Amino acid sequence: MFRSLKLQLMCQTSEVRVTATIPIKPKWMHLVPVCLCLLFTHGAIAAQSELPDNARVLLEEMQPGFKALAEGRAQDAFALWKPLAEQDFAPAQHNVALLYEKGRGVPQSQVEAVQWFWLAELNGYSRSAKNRQALQKALPAPAFEALCGKLKKRLAENVLADGGRKARRFARLLEESPRAPETQAEDAYVWNAVAVALGDSNAIPDRDRLAKGMAPERLIELQALAVGLFDHSLPPDTLAKDYPPKSEEEAAGQ
Question: Long-range contacts for 69-74 (Cβ within 8 Å, ≥24 apart)?
Answer without folding.
Answer: 69/35, 69/38, 69/39, 69/104, 69/105, 70/5, 70/22, 70/24, 70/28, 70/31, 70/32, 70/35, 71/24, 71/25, 71/28, 71/31, 72/28, 72/31, 73/105, 74/99, 74/104, 74/105, 74/106
